[in-house]
């Protein structure tokens, strides 16, 4: 990683990154979301910027500061629908897309205009609608960028991650074991295993998210037209 910091091996590459959770409103005071902090996505954006890339950064509500740099454009989103709109509008114009966001899989079918009252049992009657799968949608596009997804798993991590890689037509999936979610969500460290459609590509071992980000970039570089980068 230290050697990588000194070279601009992603110079002028256009990179799209999604990060953080999404938030799905239930009523004027409540929402459903998840434990993602956005730290991994921010680490990936910083690593890309250091290495010369031009970054589109689409994020949900974050618990970390956004990178400040002349080569990053940040898009502040909240719901999965909004994140999908923005991300899909950018996807065809980038060389590489890394979808790191923890997108809520479902949203309430309707957002209550008034605060839900506990006496009305409204909490038991929420209907859910599936959100669009942003990663899978990009994977199905004709001129898709080099596509990297993430997978949060609590069991059968490798098998599930390889299956996601196939189903979403990704080049790589970075698998995270979130069984002990406090060890990943919000943490500065994680243990990522990178897979493709067939195999484990590399076990990155447990390390901080900055070093993990640089290792993921090293893998992208070695796999995506090594001569181009
Ligand atoms: N993803 C996405 N849009 C969604 C859901 C997920 O783009 N609506 C992306 C994530 O950003 C991540 C990858 O898909 O890169 C895998 O997310 P994950 O939640 O692990 O997988 P799912 O396909 O949603 O399956 P499940 O949650 O049931 O394991
Ligand atoms: Ca999911």
From TrEMBL:
CTP binds at residues 105, 115, 150, 164, 168. Catalyzes two steps in the biosynthesis of coenzyme A. In the first step cysteine is conjugated to 4'-phosphopantothenate to form 4-phosphopantothenoylcysteine, in the latter compound is decarboxylated to form 4'-phosphopantotheine. Binds 1 FMN per subunit. It comes from Sulfobacillus acidophilus. Its cofactor is FMN; Mg(2+). Coiled coil: none annotated. Residues 15-229 are annotated as: Phosphopantothenate--cysteine ligase. This is Coenzyme A biosynthesis bifunctional protein CoaBC. In the C-terminal section; belongs to the PPC synthetase family. One of its GO terms (molecular function) is phosphopantothenoylcysteine decarboxylase activity. Pathway: Cofactor biosynthesis; coenzyme A biosynthesis; CoA from (R)-pantothenate: step 3/5; Cofactor biosynthesis; coenzyme A biosynthesis; CoA from (R)-pantothenate: step 2/5. It catalyses: (R)-4'-phosphopantothenate + L-cysteine + CTP = N-[(R)-4-phosphopantothenoyl]-L-cysteine + CMP + diphosphate + H(+); N-[(R)-4-phosphopantothenoyl]-L-cysteine + H(+) = (R)-4'-phosphopantetheine + CO2. Keywords: Decarboxylase, Flavoprotein, FMN, Ligase, Lyase, Magnesium, Metal-binding, Multifunctional enzyme. Residues 12-222 form the DNA/pantothenate metabolism flavoprotein C-terminal domain. Its EC number is 4.1.1.36, 6.3.2.5.
């Amino acid at each position: 990683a230290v050697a990588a910091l000194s070279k601009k091996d992603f110079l002028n590459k256009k990179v799209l990154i999604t990060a953080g959770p999404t938030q799905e409103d239930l009523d004027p005071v409540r929402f459903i979301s998840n434990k993602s902090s956005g730290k991994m996505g921010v680490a990936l954006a910083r690593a890309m910027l250091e290495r010369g890339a031009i970054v589109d950064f689409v994020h949900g509500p974050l618990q970390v500061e956004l990178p400040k740099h002349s080569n990053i454009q940040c898009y502040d989103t909240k719901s999965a629908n909004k994140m999908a709109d923005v991300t899909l509008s950018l996807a065809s114009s980038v060389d590489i897309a890394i979808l790191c966001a923890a997108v809520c899989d479902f949203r309430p079918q309707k957002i209550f205009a008034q605060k839900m009252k506990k006496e009305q049992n409204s909490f038991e009657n929420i209907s859910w609608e599936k959100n669009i799968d942003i990663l899978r949608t990009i994977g199905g596009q004709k001129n898709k960028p080099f596509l990297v997804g993430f997978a949060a798993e609590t069991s059968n991590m490798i098998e599930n991650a390889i299956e996601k890689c196939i189903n979403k037509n990704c080049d790589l999936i970075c698998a995270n074991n979130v069984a002990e979610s406090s060890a990943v969500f919000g943490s500065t460290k994680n243990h990522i295993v990178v897979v493709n459609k067939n195999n484990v590509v590399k076990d990155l071992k447990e390390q901080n998210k900055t070093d993990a980000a640089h290792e993921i970039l090293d893998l992208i570089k070695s796999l995506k037209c090594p001569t181009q980068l």
